[in-house]
Amino acid sequence: QVQLQESGPGLVKPSETLSLTCSVSGGSISTYHWNWIRQPPGKGLEWIGHIFSSGSTTYNPSLRSRVTISVYTSKNQFSLKLSSVTAADTAVYYCARQVAFGDDFDIWGQGTLVTVSS
Amino acid sequence: DIQMTQSPSSLSASVGDRVTITCRASQGIRNDLGWYQQKPGKAPKRLIYAAFSLQSEVPSRFSGSRSGTEFTLTISSLQPEDFAIYYCLQHNSYPRTFGQGTKVEIK
């Protein structure tokens, strides 16, 4: 079955760029939509953005100026870049699959904790 | 943005109890709502999609319903493995938005 795995640095300095990759195994990244969601420690879930396998994106307006999501179909991966991070960006970051444009998230990665600290 | 107001924020219940959790959308979202369960240190797991449909391999004690813009997750007979945090998610429009979560604790 399809599995998602997040990877990337667990510690990022303030003002730098957070970079994460989500690797998709057990199925193709093509024809699906892919999302990033985050959860600050002890808090709720926040949707960051979405990319279709063609490369079209939709971002949360609250983060749009700092977010870039890209897809690499040959590698079966997609990525998240969040610039100018602060302590408020400390969170567990999840990637998740969305079957169609209007759907919710059926498969999630296990999540990766990113701490913003000097 | 569509606001999802989830209640209660927490509840205490005993094994065997019937539990209901509600999410109210700030505007109409048709049936574009999912329910998720999250256990400590784990990713959310989808229980219900399209407001009513049970995710495969999810026990039938979980069910979803809708009345207008109010959505309800019901656990008919709470089991020990059901103690967790539950979230609703609207996927009618972007940005996707979650409810604040309901923590179900053991009484």
Q: Helices and strands of chain B: which structural class? A: mainly beta
Helix content of chain A: under 10%
Secondary-structure element pattern of chain A, one letter each: EEEEEEEEEEE
Measured on Cα atoms, how large is the radius of gyration of chain A?
13 Å
- Write the element-wise H/E pattern of chain B from the N-terminal end onward: EEEEEEEEEEE
Distance between the termini of chain B: 36 Å
Report the principal-axis shape of chain B: globular
- The number of strands of chain B is 11
Number of helices of chain A: 0
Stretches of chain A where pLDDT is under 50 for at least 5 consecutive residues are none
> What is the makeup of the main sheet of chain A?
7 strands, mixed
Structure report:
The complex is a heterodimer of chains A (118) and B (107). With 118 residues, chain A is mainly β. Chain A is built from no helices and 11 strands. The relative contact order of chain A is 0.31. Chain B has strands spanning 4-7, 10-13, 19-25, 33-38, 45-49, 53-54, 62-67, 70-75, 85-90, 97-98, 102-106. In chain B, strands 2, 4, 5, 6, 9, 10 and 11 form a 7-stranded mixed β-sheet that branches. A 4-stranded antiparallel β-sheet of chain B has the order 1-3-8-7, with no helix packed on it. In chain B, a hairpin with a 3-residue loop joins strand 5 (45-49) and strand 6. Chains A and B meet through strand 5 of A and strand 5 and strand 10 of B.
